[in-house]
């Protein structure tokens, strides 16, 4: 929609400028009526839901409103146009308006209006966001001595008629808690309480209940960007960085789970009261997937894990004598589903960071593994739908897989896996490649 409106705006400005130059007149009255009509058309499209009102349309609405008011005032005053026609003035005003059109429509182009992936469950889904403060940890990314805070958001059945399993999600390296919102919505519609975590200073940005915003930490950002570059880290230094990242992630997840379990006992909030605390699953994308697998080893109350495109950092052991990683020699007993894109699938046998993920690792022989052929790392999130331009820029090009097919199939597999492992409903099976 943004691209279409920009094309219309640019075409009009060029055509009207040519018309004015050809007739050697300003045609101010005609332009005023067109500006009023444009604002009315925008309002009608918004009221009819052709344009779904959101942040992406705010600047365009402001510009159209200002132009329409200015035009209306000019028509009401009905002054005779005494300004002498100048070709340079017509061309300059047209150029400025085209630049303004690009600027105000940029949000709609970068974050285009799109259809949401399908939701197949019977439950209407509600959301709620909270800030949890960990009184046992001091925030390491600031020097204020404040306690560590973690922002969470719940997706849950709006009209609960029973208790539902709890699913905890952790986002990727630069992600945000809504990175896989379509997945949470689909799961909640089938009777799950899903909580997604923003890891402050690992998240691109996070906003607390009191309005405080925390942006991604610059040092952490550099560490992540440098981890796959040759000559930046030794294997030993990379191993130390991994341990540091995972400690923060798993501490956050443990804190959130423990907080929710406590609130399920002591808090009358209906969200907590509809949680079946005996049925808990964890899942995550990238670093969040690695942290989820880690929790699958650490906690006895985790009954199912979904790893989306992540190395098994919990199962890496650094061997100084060979200066490389080897896989941990211990069975992983929690039910596990691995979902890989081409970006990770192609590294399973070539990158020692993924040595524990190898398909022939006997310690994960009971894990289910699927590969989305043609998918890039971010194809397994909602970002390519929310912002194709941003997703393509970050991952260096457009994925070959159709995005709706990818995310909807991924959501279906995750639902079926958790249904089997947490609800005892059905028997999870999957193809190796999708």
From TrEMBL:
Signal peptide region: none
Lineage of the species this protein comes from: Bacteria, Bacillati, Bacillota, Bacilli, Bacillales
Family matches, as PANTHER family: PLATELET-ACTIVATING FACTOR ACETYLHYDROLASE
Superkingdom of this protein's organism: Bacteria
Keywords associated with the record: Hydrolase, Lipid degradation, Lipid metabolism, Membrane, Transmembrane, Transmembrane helix
Listed transmembrane segments: 6-22, 34-51, 57-78, 90-111
Name used for this protein in its record: Platelet-activating factor acetylhydrolase, plasma/intracellular isoform II
InterPro entries xref list: AB_hydrolase_fold
Gene Ontology process terms (BP): lipid catabolic process
Gene Ontology MF: a single term: 1-alkyl-2-acetylglycerophosphocholine esterase activity
